[in-house]
Amino acid sequence: MQLLKERIRRDGIVREGGVLKVDSFLNHQMDIDLFEEIGKEFHRRFEGEEVTKILTIEASGIGIACITARYFQVPVVFAKKNKTKNIAGDVYTSRVESFTHGRVYDIMVSKDFLGKGDKVLLIDDFLANGKALEGLAQLVEDAGAELTGAGIVIEKGFQRGGDAIRGRGIHLESLAIIDSMDAASGTITFRER
Amino acid sequence: MQLLKERIRRDGIVREGGVLKVDSFLNHQMDIDLFEEIGKEFHRRFEGEEVTKILTIEASGIGIACITARYFQVPVVFAKKNKTKNIAGDVYTSRVESFTHGRVYDIMVSKDFLGKGDKVLLIDDFLANGKALEGLAQLVEDAGAELTGAGIVIEKGFQRGGDAIRGRGIHLESLAIIDSMDAASGTITFRER
Question: Which of A21, A31, A62, A100 to probe by mutation at the B interface, max B CB count within 10 Å?
Answer without folding.
Answer: A62
